[in-house]
Amino acid sequence: MMRVALTGYSRGILSAIAVICATVAMMFSGNLLAQGDLTRKPQKLPELLMGSEESDYSLSEKKYELETGKAYRLEIVASGLKPYALRAPEFFASIYLRKIEAGGMEIKAVSLNELEFEDQGSAEIFFVPVKPGTFEFYITGLRHKGMEGVFVVK
Q1: What is the rounded distance in angstroms from the CA atom of residue 63 to the CA atom of residue 38?
Q2: 0.85 cut: is pTM over it?
């Protein structure tokens, strides 16, 4: 059996390493950093209706004001008057997407590119904005008809 004698200096270094390891372990445990689940109890936003009796090219909302770190749910409804494909590439890249609910299904995905509706229908997205900025949304091929708006995230 071999014994190693530690000097006061060696004991001090080992103690410092132990304190650093314990601190790092607590930091990454999540208990010290998070105070609840940010994705729960989402705030319902006004629905985004694409097309109406007045015009095939109408959008019910042109601007959504959001805050980073808050959970939201947005229902997107297609009137069925034409095919509609909602795009918001920069916005979708700047959110934490929790889930999408459509057609009696719950879809869990890491990211979203486009929501395309061939007929009448709806989809609800649950998300948390993580990056501030002003992000455009639009209906593919129908921007020139005024089917566009913005998400303003503060």
Answers
A1: 23
A2: no
